[in-house]
Amino acid sequence: MSHTVDLFVYPNCQLLDASGPWQVFASANALLGRRHYDLRLNAIEPGEVTTNGGMTLVATHALDADRSSGTSSDGTLLVAGGHGVHDLDDEVIRRLAERVVPASRVGSICTGAFALARTGLLDDRCVTTHWRQAERLAREFPKVHVAADALYRESGGIYTSAGVTAGMDLALALVA
C-alpha cells in the first residue's frame, strides 16, 4: 500500500524546497524497489507554477483535490517555502486549512511555515523556519513558539524545517 505525499507549491516558491524533499521520497521508492510513496505536486490549481528562480514546475493536482473529489488523504502534506508564501491570499490559506485536516502528517519546508501559521495550525507549537525569517515569524504570529536554531522540528504531529537542505533532512526523518 502506498503513502501519498502531496507537496504544495505556488508562484515564487523556492525550487529546492520542492525538489529536495520530492527527491528524498522518490529515492526511497527506488531503494525499496517499489512505489511506497505516491508523489503528487499540488498548486492552487493544476498547471504551471513558476518558482523564484524562474524554473517552471507543472502541478498535477489542485490543493484541495481530495476535498473536491469526495475523498480524503491520510498521507503527508508538505508546504514549500519561498518569497511567494507572503503573497498567498486569504482564499488560498482557507483552502490550505481545509486540506490539512484530513492529512495524517502536515509539514512545511523553510518559510512554508508562514502559510501554516496563517491557518492557525502552528498556534502553541514549537516550530522552525529559515533563520532569516524566524524573527518575522515570531513577531507576526505571537502564539507560535519559534526555535530559530533547529534544522527541523516536530510538535504535536506538525513538522517544520529550516532552509533548503533542512527540508531534505526533514523528508529523510519522515521516511525513517
The CATH superfamily label reads Class I glutamine amidotransferase (GATase) domain
Strand content: 15-25%
CATH topology: Rossmann fold
Q: Please work out how many helical segments DSSP would assign.
A: 6
Shape: globular
Note the gap between the termini: 17 Å
Task: Return the CATH class.
Answer: Alpha Beta
Derived structural class: alpha/beta
Parts with pLDDT < 50 across at least 5 consecutive residues: 67-72
Average pLDDT level: 93
Structurally, the number of domains stands at: 1
What is the helix fraction of residues, given as a range?
25-40%
Order of helices and strands: EHEEEEHEHEHEHEEEH
Biggest sheet architecture: 7 strands, mixed
Radius of gyration: 15 Å
In spatial order, strands of the major sheet run 5-2-1-6-7-11-10
Q: Number of DSSP strands?
A: 11
The CATH architecture? 3-Layer(aba) Sandwich
Give your account of this protein's structure:
The chain is of the alpha/beta class. It is 34% helix and 24% strand. It has helices spanning 15-32, 65-68, 90-100, 112-119, 134-140, 164-175; strands at residues 3-8, 37-43, 47-50, 56-59, 61-62, 76-79, 105-108, 126-127, 145-146, 152-155, 158-161. The strands form 3 sheets. The chain has a 7-stranded mixed sheet with strand order 5-2-1-6-7-11-10, with helices on both faces. A two-stranded antiparallel sheet has the order 3-4. Helix 1 (15-32) packs parallel to helix 6 and helix 3 packs across helix 4 (112-119). The radius of gyration is 15 Å and the shape is globular. Residues 67-72 have low confidence and may be disordered.
